[in-house]
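help with these tokens:
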Amino acid sequence: MSGGSHNYIYSRIEEELADQMEDAELNELISDIIVLAHALEWYHSSDTSRADYLETVIAFKKKWFKSNREERLKKYIEESIQKTKEELLNMIGGDVDE
């Protein structure tokens, strides 16, 4: 097993917090933090290169520090509406594409 330089903190965060925030935006943030922590741990354990780690950092920062929050929130709203629609249609035996 790779990693270990940070006692697999990314795995513990995932076990304890993934999809537990009761908020779509925070759940996605936690998920991305897990990816970032995993990349750091593997880099510090010499399993991956610094360049690999920095690529993950750049992607994280681009998403969370420069992205349009309003657009991200609209995406969550649309996903929630679609999920609710599917659940309700399934209750009546309907097809989601109807």
